Fold this protein.
Amino acid sequence: MNAKYPATAPQQPAAAGDGPQAMTPSEAFVETMVANGVSEMFGIMGSAFMDAMDIFAPAGIRLIPVVHEQGAGHMADGYARVSGRHGVVIGQNGPGISNCVTAIAAAYWAHSPVVIVTPEAGTMGIGLGGFQEAKQLPMFQEFTKYQGHVTHPARMAEFTGRCFDRAMAEMGPTQLNIPRDYFYGQIKTEIPRPQRLDRGAGGDERLNEAAELLAQARFPVIISGGGVVMADAIEACKALAERLGAPVVNSYLHNDSFPANHPLWCGPLGYQGSKAAMKLLAQADVVVALGSRLGPFGTLPQHGLDYWPKHAKIIQIDADHKMLGLVKKISVGICGDAKAAAVALSQRLAERTLVCDATRAARADQIATEKAAWEKELDEWTHERDPYSLDMIEEQKRERTFNGGEYLHPRQVLRELEKAMPEDVMVSTDIGNINSVANSYLRFNKPRSFFAAMSWGNCGYAFPTIIGAKVAAPHRPAISYAGDGAWGMSLMETLTCVRHNIPVTAVVFHNRQWGAEKKNQVDFYNRRFVAGELESPSFANIARAMGAEGIVVDRLEDVGPALKKAIDLQMNHGKTTIIEIMCTRELGDPFRRDALSKPVRMLDKYKDYV
């Protein structure tokens, strides 16, 4: 750190909206970020933005260097999802920027207000095939809500401010593209004041229609989606649910959108979700989709249950009008803020007699009964039951190769981790077989606690995301889940934790395979395994070599104590810990049953491969 500019003593910023002032474009860029509350950003330093980077510290901005720019993008995503503020990522033009594409796509599907700053080749060299030159706007056009390209140095503050405003207004990533020579020179400019939307509840006519439907409902159910978290609408959702006596189910991968300790909570929908939630939703005659786009993957049949209520009337509430009725046929669509809309509906229902009031007690009993039955099933569901999984369990018993340990059943491990979770925990999960099964076991009482790659479903997401979340909320315990495949794409960011004192806990399920795809080869390709095996050294040993703590768990009774020890090291000693859990090769339900079918071969040379 340059001693002249200690990060702990930021200088007085130029006040936004105070009129034009003389400054450099770099100063305009930095001051506009300060006006938008930026205090941390993630990336790898580069010559393309070094003039601006030189003044980050006196402005009070900490640039956190990472190992790989994809990790930086995920960290910005996690930071934004926990804080409710912008996450910012920056990198060198060309390859540094292209490394971020996957992470920005994940942020797009999570509706995270991430701003990616993409310094570009200089204007006098564009089109000549110079060093690290690339067309950087097309790379991100599918995964950004807005792309601001600085067309003149004097417009630096204007485009920077617009990118920050649009990220919040449109609930997704924006791109600020800056030719590298535009950081230099002298300009006269005004730092724009941030503009934030005050979203309303929606139109009175639609709200009245929705209230009338709910007043006549016999079995209303609320789906609480990601919009409830983003709108800080948990209490409003609770009030609406309590007025209706309605069961509340979490939309897919939004397990933190309603508190699990509330008697009306029923668990998540979607892949490996709660049977209680699905059985109760199946009975609905009116469904309130609050802050949910009702994504197609999140409502697929599961556990043998085709649970979507095909004859129910659907009230969908979303801040983005384009989502209304996009996936499911709806009866009423309300374009509005989840919190404001829930409050408005509760007000309309407060003085009315509701048909569902007559069956409130019976419905409460049914909710409790279904939840208890599901919890009992989870307790008894100790291992996967398909023939291949049973064969693998027996095979691994015979091939035990480590001292006195056992290969553990993933479901038992997940249950023990659930029991050992600390209060106020934040958890991120990667994509993959065991991580997806975790959907049944992850419960939260506080919003902004659960993070997944959503519809993008990329490997290598969870660990860097929880690092960004920890930066935003250092007082909260932070845990990531990853299989050994996804861990191989992200373990290098352990160095970021160690180098920059960002303590987190990573749980790695080591089963030596690409489990989700291997399950498809079991079910559809007659167990012809291609490229699915992942023989690896000890991840705990690798963690120790990087300067972190490493714990190997090969006994079920050690799972909970290992997590508690790691959290103690994280919260009280500032240490990152990698918990390596030795798991069996048993496999859960196929991840993409909807996308596969039995193969048909036309050529004789392949006739046996059906």
